[in-house]
Amino acid sequence: MSNEILMEIKSVDRTYVDANNHTVDALKDINLSIRRGEFLSIIGPSGCGKTTLLRLLAGLDVPESGVITLEGEEIKGPHPDRGYVFQQGSLFPWLTVEKNIATGLKARGVYKKHKNEIAQYINMIGLDGFEEVFPHQISGGMAQRVAIARSLINHPVALLLDEPMGALDAFTRADLQDKILELWKKNETTMILVTHDVEEALYLSDRVVIMSPRPGKISEIINISLPRPRQKNSQDFMVMRSSILEKLHLASTIPQVEYNI
Ligand SMILES: Nc1ncnc2c1ncn2[C@@H]1O[C@H](COP(=O)(O)OP(=O)(O)OP(=O)(O)O)[C@@H](O)[C@H]1O
Asked: Can you give the residue ranges of the ABC transporter domain (predicted)?
């Protein structure tokens, strides 16, 4: 990972007005520098603004005040240079695996020129032989791989992952975590992952950002220096996991928050 700053979030606020006409401070004075090529996870209790922050990075929403830049340019809207993967259900059900991945290229207007790359990305996500299959015929983990390939084929500088493993069973989740690590290394894409899972954040990340709610703020940024491949049952890993859990509980003002550990 380089020390070059890819994205910069400066003094960002985002408020919403809820159904009862109350103002919700979803994000308050967020400052964060994201380095090119790093794996960054954002973790925190429900409602602390994780998705709001990811949507701002994607350009799907704009800050109330403050600024977010990518390579020094202000982010003003969505762009294929920032891929976005949702928790589930983001594939077009009427298109095959191959055609779903092709929509990434079509969105960029480069389908004809780059369609021969689709096979390479299908191979990269380990789905050779599934080209002509429809989303309802594959597992949730396979569908998430397709959603990731659809973004990666556009060579994004950053991939924004909003709990992509949240709806998967434990075995499939662990499998997809390893695939995401492999894709990260191969493509050198900056990864920004929102997760509720402490173990997942610790297994994958160079840095873990802990957020706290009401207002949504960054309460701590932790550097993870454990060597890779990380062993989830090693002493060092478990000590670090307990430490992050403790910080999360301190960051949370909501009683009875549940985490996957
Ligand atoms: N469109 C909206 N209108 C009103 N309030 C909103 C809207 N979107 C988000 N909020 C509120 O802003 C706060 C932050 O929401 P956000 O979804 O970013 O949190 P989160 O940390 O991603 O939560 P979760 O982990 O449950 O997905 C919450 O209090 C939420 O209710």
From this structure: 9-238
Report the largest interatomic distance among the alpha carbons of the chain, rounded to a whole angstrom.
Answer: 54
Average of per-residue pLDDT across 11-17: 95
Separation of 55 CA from ligand 1 center, angstroms? 11
What mean pLDDT comes out for the span 229-243? 95
What HEC string does 35-81 produce?
A: ECCCEEEEECCCCCCHHHHHHHHHCCCCCCEEEEEECCEECCCCCCC
Does some domain include residue 217?
yes
Per the domain annotation, does 110 fall within a domain?
Answer: yes
Instruction: Identify the CATH number of the domain in which residue 22 sits.
Output: 3.40.50.300
Q: Is residue 200 part of a domain?
A: yes
- Distance in Å, CA 26 to ligand 1 centroid: 6
Instruction: Determine, yes or no, domain membership for 109.
Output: yes
Contact 50 CB / ligand 1 (< 6 Å): yes
Question: In the chain, what percentage of residues exceed pLDDT 90?
Answer: 82
Total tally of structural domains belonging to the chain:
1
